[in-house]
C-alpha cells in the first residue's frame, strides 16, 4: 500500500497530477525565515529547502490552506486572516514520488512573535502525514545571508529566488504580487 495521497493530486487535461496549494513565508522577530528540508522518497540524496505549506482541501482558500498546513507541519495554529498577501503566485512543474507533478501555489507572509516561534520549535502539536514523516528531514530558522551562502554552495532552495524575495518580505509587503513559473 502506498503512503502517497494520490487523491490529493487529480489529473489535469494533460494527464499530470495537478493541485492548488497555499504556502507561507514565516519570519521570526529577528527576520529569520522558517524552512523545511525534505527529500524525494525514491531519491533520498535529492534534498531541498522549502516553505511550510501544501495542497488545498475542498472549499479551502489558499490562506486557510497555508494556515492549516503550517499547523500540521509545525504545530502552530494561526488565524488565516494573519496571512499577508498573496505575495507570490507560483506555477511549478517538478518530479516527486515517481511522477512529474504540477502545483499552483499562492504564498503568504506571516510574522510570528517569540512565543509562537517557541511553539514552532517545540513542534508539540504537529500532525505529519505518513509521507511527511518519511520525507521531511529538518526544520530551521535561516538568517537570509546564511541561506544565500548555502544556496550559492549548492543547496537547493525553492521557490527559485526565495532569498531575494524574502529580503523584502521580512519587513512587510509592498502590495506587489510576484508571478513565477518554474519547470
From TrEMBL:
Q: Which residues form the Nudix hydrolase domain?
A: 17-164
Record-linked Gene3D superfamilies:
Nucleoside Triphosphate Pyrophosphohydrolase
> Which keywords does the record carry?
Hydrolase, Magnesium
Question: Needs which cofactor?
Answer: Mg(2+)
CDD domains documented for this protein? NUDIX_Hydrolase
Instruction: Provide a Gene Ontology MF annotation, just one.
Output: hydrolase activity
- The keyword Zinc belongs to this UniProt entry's keyword annotation: no
Q: Which family does it belong to?
A: Belongs to the Nudix hydrolase family.
**Protein name, entry field:** NUDIX domain-containing protein
Native organism: Trueperella pecoris
